[in-house]
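Summary for the steering committee. One of the milestones for this cycle was to obtain a three-dimensional model of the protein with magnesium ion bound, which we needed before selecting residues for the alanine scan. The sequence and ligand used are listed below.
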Amino acid sequence: MKSLADIAAALQGYDPQALTVSQVGDFLAQLTQPLSAHEAQDLPLFDALGRVLAHDVISPIHVPPHNNSAMDGFAFDGSQLTPTQALHLRVVGTALAGKAWQGRVQAGECLKIMTGAILPEGLDTVAPQELCQVHTESDATITVPAGVFQRGDNRRLQGEDLRQGHAALHAGAHLTPAALGLVASLGTPKVRVHRRLRVAYFSTGDEILSLGEAPREGAVYDSNRFTVFGLLTRMGCEVVDLGVVRDDPLLLEAAFSEAAAQADAIITSGGVSVGEADFTKAMMKKLGDVAFWKIAMRPGRPMAVGRLGNSVLFGLPGNPVAVMVTFLAFVRPALLRMMGSTAPMPPLLRAKSLEALRKKPGRTEYQRGTVSTAADGSLHVRTTGNQGSGVLSSMVQGNGLIVLHHAQGNVAVGDEVDVMVFEGVV
Ligand code: AMP
Ligand code: MG
């Protein structure tokens, strides 16, 4: 495991007093490691939603297992098709899904076939029922119109979805609803997944009230524990809630120790900004290997990062929006990596700004915005208004963060900007 000093030494232009957002990302990628596959567990599919695969899932079968029909219609040997001549065929039987049809189909003959039914040897083309002329007087002949079909139409090939012996999913994949269905289609009842990541969190600050406490002058109710709880839970983490910890060295030491003893990662909020007259930073320094940063970003300038025992520590700022933004920008990608995920970050959207935005080059800004689709189908975005780092309602109103990059300057009305959509995450 690399020490913080090692990581810092290898990072181009590392200055803890003026880090860029991308340097923070690079640093955290070095600081965090995926869970070991040794701790993986086998889970039945219904229990595995949202987990990360610890091993490749190899398909024991071809999916689909046989060539089969993609339509209800008539199956025949497509070599008989010509561009100009309709094809007259005698119907010699019916093939239903789930039952192999026994018999042979000769030239000039076809088989009535249902969707999913096995295509017998020699038949490679299916003409959907509604596109054929069925001669009802006999019900035994059909006409396939000329020039409509090509050989191989409406046929699903054996193994076209998944090949036997090949990886259907790779280690690091998330078990999404689609992935669960895919594994089930192999006839595989269990998957080997990483254990859930355990993340402990607490809020700090003497002015922070827990729910149920009486309001008092100068005090605010703790919201950070709830946003952090929600963000972690949606990621599939196991959460350890250590409450609000007062600015008291003994209480802080107990909380940090308890967190480090049981969690893979620790998230705190508050107490890391410059001039904080509290014990949070001192305790982090005493108990672990911790760096204190000023990041060229808004909101969320101060942050502490490091290791406490075997846990990775993320000391987030106190302001509620800054907590969520630093979580999305840094903590979430780092935790996903620790969970063993290899999924790339979802791409940013490009949307036209409906407002002029003031922005100084030299820092990254995350403004809360609402993306919508205009009448012409293009994406528009407008900010949610007051961008104060304590205005949590902006995170509720918006559906994404407008990312104004480090070197970017002012944005004029109609300029395109990048947006990190956070629906389903926040
Ligand atoms: P700090 O980073 O400790 O200087 O806190 C910055 C601001 O965030 C202050 O106005 C705090 O009152 C506020 N704050 C800190 N922690 C929380 C919390 N858990 N919930 C709501 N607001 C908080
Ligand atoms: Mg404070």
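Key point for the committee: The CA atoms of residues 206 and 246 lie 5 Å apart.
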